[in-house]
UniProtKB/TrEMBL annotation, chains A, B, C, D:
<protein>
    <recommendedName>
        <fullName>Thioesterase domain-containing protein</fullName>
    </recommendedName>
</protein>
<dbReference type="InterPro" id="IPR006683">
    <property type="entry name" value="Thioestr_dom"/>
</dbReference>
<dbReference type="Pfam" id="PF03061">
    <property type="entry name" value="4HBT"/>
</dbReference>
<feature type="domain" description="Thioesterase">
    <location>
        <begin position="92"/>
        <end position="170"/>
    </location>
</feature>
<comment type="similarity">
    <text>Belongs to the thioesterase PaaI family.</text>
</comment>
<dbReference type="InterPro" id="IPR039298">
    <property type="entry name" value="ACOT13"/>
</dbReference>
<dbReference type="InterPro" id="IPR029069">
    <property type="entry name" value="HotDog_dom_sf"/>
</dbReference>
<dbReference type="InterPro" id="IPR003736">
    <property type="entry name" value="PAAI_dom"/>
</dbReference>
<feature type="region of interest" description="Disordered">
    <location>
        <begin position="1"/>
        <end position="24"/>
    </location>
</feature>
<keyword id="KW-0378">Hydrolase</keyword>
Length: 189, 189, 189, 189
């Protein structure tokens, strides 16, 4: 696990992906969807238990289905997630904290579609995460998570995610995620 | 893991604690703080990996410090949590989804101080969980989580939590949690 | 101005439209869009200054453009609003409180598309109103407000609104509005 | 009404108080509470109907009761507001949009306690305004609004407000208000 990153200390918020953005030369060549996959891989590649992180029990069950940048103002990414016992409460439904975790990760990943050195290359850090729970996601259900950029500027962005039952598309939960850019000025890279 | 509870199917929301409330006769005799501890114990007692749940990696590091019902309109519970690697992002700070999970669990537990058969005995289910991240909680930090009931009625309640650095009380994050009561009418118990 | 309605006292929340729903026999025959217009007319028909209400300076500039119930799970209503000096802050942009007021009213009106005796006939009362401001709406701008039902049940609903610049469709603000049904049981009507 | 301010165009958000901050020399000498009163006076001094603004029907009924900077991390301001017919819905309770407007204005005013050239001198602009309605505020009720700074940095701040019935202190509504600093660098003033 990397040591706390000075920028995030400055901004004083959670999140950020240092391996991801330290690897910024590669990211420069990658397509947006390749950067989304890189973000997932880096977070998942923590086999060493001492390096186990909060996403360890999510990522093996989360799959990137597609990305869509046809609307340049509102790029989108679609994920599929299988609800396993370790994601549930004692009642057998996905835990509200797991839903929030999925939304945090999946909405952040959309930023990889537009990130470039100095512009969300670190995918920013969370300021607000507002989740609304509409219907339960029972254990063994498969859900799809549609994420999009609502607005992105130099300092702030607003992301949105909706979770649906894959079988019939019924809405299960929605999320609005506000993030803050933590990139150092490009000159300093 | 208990089978999905019919009431939560009706209300179509997440959460609820069936073992907790099925044990309602005992809960009736217990003090509020005993019910908070019962809520924590039931959620933690899932040693069998097949019964592992979303709270498995949180509860060993979460401690109930005190409860306060002196203000009957706004009962409070205070928790301490030690931030471990498994709670963190790849950057070494507590993951925003872990912060949300802690707030979901800790604010819900305050309802155990006022629950009775027919009135939040199941601790309800989440409708909204809004978290604001102010400063990072680095790995190995110890945080305290103060939770209180903002308002509780027959159908709805609003709970609030604030997370502070234990060492100096600096605010790290805040949460507002809206829940819905799922208790069956008492007559039907 | 109607005297406070006992149900809203019980639920202890804001809003509701008593003349609208007291007139429930008419509402029964009306189409959804006719009910939306009835909701607007009742709120606007307060010429007597002593009956002036919070919407007095909004409704002359708010126009219902269309409604769409083709997706029965997510009915929609589209409004147009002209930003006048009385809607602005001293800087000459629409005041955040005016944006919130427009979202409160316009999202509530969508419920008129599905309301029936005992089911949101009073259009409910607000529990939460969360607005995110993305770009300013300058005085003399014309905006369109798209509102939809995200989820509606017997007790609760979640509504969403987005405000766009009419000229080019740029997103200016978004809103999530949580309401509570206050209808008395139909038998008691 | 001032012409749209270039900074707010850049940040693309609502609000800001240009007369307030153009008068920055005076503000420099003023105490925090004097700056709060200056903010209220500037907003209220729009007798000319053509200059009527969104606060016109609020400010005659809003009174600054006190400010408290004893906790330097969380300065507070206390207001009293009398609920008049023009603040209400057709049901006779304060309109949710009026509650949101009061919270927007009152929480913003707390920033005047800490503002200085380059640091929230313009009181920033709103990014998020989240209001939770707990109980109605009937016409002719008097309410008190307690506002505090939850966290303030160079770019962002989070403010909180709670509205209580003055007669018995019962909570009626709560608000979290996220703002963005729009000050130009001090050198450029």
């Amino acid at each position: 696990m990397g040591k706390p990153h000075s920028d995030s200390k400055v901004t004083g918020l959670t999140g950020g992906e240092d391996e991801f953005s330290s690897n910024i030369e590669d990211a420069r060549q990658a397509t947006g969807e390749e950067r989304v996959r890189a973000f997932m891989k880096i977070t998942a590649d923590e086999k060493d238990l001492s390096k186990r992180n909060w996403m360890t029990f999510i990522l093996p069950h989360l799959e990137l289905l597609s990305s869509d940048t046809s609307d340049s103002a509102h790029p989108k990414v679609l994920f599929r997630h299988s609800v396993k016992p370790e994601h549930c409460n004692t009642l057998g439904n996905m835990h509200g904290g797991c839903t929030a975790t999925l939304f945090d990760f999946c909405t952040s990943s959309v930023l990889a579609l537009v990130s470039r050195p100095g512009f969300w290359a670190f995918l920013g850090v969370s300021r607000t995460l507002n989740v609304t729970y509409l219907r339960p996601a029972p254990c063994d259900e498969t859900v799809v998570i549609e994420c999009e950029i609502v607005q992105v500027g130099k300092k702030l962005c607003t992301l949105r995610g909706v979770m649906r039952r894959e079988s019939d598309g019924t809405l299960l939960a929605t999320c609005e995620h506000g993030k803050v850019n933590t990139d150092p000025p490009v000159g300093k890279l």
